[in-house]
Sequence to fold (299 residues):
Amino acid sequence: MRDFISILDFSRSELESIFEEADRMREINCSDILEGRIMALAFFEPSTRARLGFSAAMFKLGGGVIELGGPEKSAMSRGENFSDTIKVLDGIADVIVIRHGLEGASKLAAQIAESPVINAGDGSREYPVQGILDLYAIKSFLGRIDGLHIGIIGDLRYGRSVRSFILGLTRFLPAKLYLMSPESLKIKEDIREALNISRIDFEEISWLEEVISELDVLYVTRLQKERFPDISEYEKLKGTYRIEKSLLKEAKERMIILHPLPRTDELSPEVDETPHAKYFKQAALYVPVAMAILRAAML
Ligand code: CP
Fold:
C-alpha cells in the first residue's frame, strides 16, 4: 500500500509499471480485484474528471465509492476539523482520494490516515494523477516520451497539473521543453531547479509560432483564475494567449495537442476537429490510469 502525493515519489520504472498496468486495465470492463473495498472521495474543490474518473475506476474494479460531499453536507459545517474528518474516513474506507485548495493538504491527510491517500490536486502544488495520465497519454499516442520536443503553454505558476507534468518529465529524457506563459506566470524556482538537476534542455519562449514546426506535443493549460490572489491581475491576463487552428498549419502531421481540462478560452473549439486534438481521448484515459493507480495504492 502506498500514497500518491507527489509525482517525484515515483521512479521512471515505477511510472512505466503504472503505464503497463493502465494498458492492461484498458482491456478490463469488469473485475473483482477490489471487491469489498471502499474508496472515499474527499473533494473540497469542484471536479468532473477526477471525481467521476476515480468513481468509474473503482466500479470497474469491483469496489464501492463513498463521497464526503461539499462542506454543506458533511459535519465540517458543524465545526469538525480536517484532521478528525480524515481520521473518520480512514476508519470507514480503504483508500482516500483527496482534492483540496490548500497546498500540503494531501500530505497532511497521508500523515493522519493509515489507508493510502491519493492526491487529486492540492492548491497550486501538485496533481500527480494528472501528471501520470499526461505522460501515459503521450506514451499511448506517440509510443515514447524520450526524444520528443514538447511545448507547454499557459499558467505555469499556479497550474498544479502542469507542475506535476513537468516534474514527471524529469523522470524521462525529452529532447527539449519549450515553456511559454505570461511573464508573471512563469515556472517557479523549484521547477526550474528540478529541470536543471535532471539536465532537461528547456527554453522559455515568447512566441509559439517560432517553434510550432518542431513540436511533437503541445500541452495547453488555462489560467487558474481561482488561484490568483488579485482577480484584477487575472482580468489583465485573460485572453493573452489562445491556440487557433491557423497556428497549426506549420505543425508536424503527428503533433498532438493535450490539455488537462477544463478549458476556458485558451484553446479554440475549431482545433477540436483537427487530427492534432487528443485532449478528449486523453481525458478518457483517466479511468484506466485511475484503475492502475488504485491497484498500485491498495494491493
Ligand atoms: N483534469 C481534471 O482533473 O479535471 P477536473 O478538475 O474536472 O477533475
